[in-house]
Amino acid sequence: MLRSVLLLAVGLLLGGAPSFAQTAGLRTQPIEFDNTLVVTLPDEGQAAWQRAGRLLARRGYLIRFASPELLTISTEPVSNFSQRLMGVYLVVDGHELQMQGYIPAGDNTINWLHVIEYDNGKGLSGRRWKELQEIARLLGGTVRYARTPTH
Question: Which of 99, 38, 87 is nearest to 61 (CA)?
């Protein structure tokens, strides 16, 4: 099961990279169905990728997949007191870092990943979105929001 989740994560990550590049229509405030945080950073490329990886590790995320060539990172879904189970994946393109959160979904026969969407509530979904915003805030730079296609 872990292998299939890993393969799905890598597939979403690699399959999602082209859609991440479509960041037209960025907003300064998230709206319903936004699922991507776009952070414009002072550093770029590998330096931004390494900084993001260190931050995720300090926050307790276990790195599942990291590619210095593609400048992508995917974490294992982890639980903590505030947001329960959630994983993060991101891609760096120049000074821009695009980040999404995900949760595993499915049953014993089918597994897939559900991308976290904006939620301003105080429930579990809202806490997950707030965790993504906190990661973006700690990375520094300007944060904008977008809805990118998911597969």
Answer: 87
